[in-house]
Amino acid sequence: MVEKVCRECHRVVTGQTCAVCGSTNFSTDWSGYVIIIDPARSQIAQKMQVKLAGKYALKVR
Ligand SMILES: [Zn+2]
After folding, report:
1. Which of 11, 34, 57, 61 is the most exposed place for a label (fewest CB within 10 A)?
2. What is the pLDDT of residues 6-58, one digit of tens each?
3. Residue 14 — left, alpha, or beta (φ > 0 → left; ψ -120 to 50 → alpha)?
4. Ligand 1 center–CA 19 separation, angstroms
């Protein structure tokens, strides 16, 4: 199964809507991901403006 990511916030989506922004605008053409465990302490999370822990794609086309 190909995982989908949200085009708005890059979160890897498992349901019908994005858990972060509620978007249904998904892409299956993406590469690389980071797992954010503690957004408040993660510099990557801050750079990507991620506020909810989870899996995020680095590049989405
Ligand atoms: Zn989203």
Report:
1. 61
2. 999 999 999 999 999 999 999 999 999 999 999 999 999 999 889 999 999 99
3. alpha
4. 7
CA of 32 to the centre of ligand 1 (A): 17
User: How many angstroms separate the alpha carbon of residue 1 from the centre of ligand 1?
Assistant: 20
Residue 50 Cα, ligand 1 centroid: separation in angstroms?
A: 10
Structural domains in the chain (count)? 1
Domain of 53, in residue numbers: 4-60
Asked if 4 and 27 touch (Cβ cutoff 8 Å), the reply is: yes
pLDDT at 1: 72
Residue given tokens 């995982």 in the structure block: 3
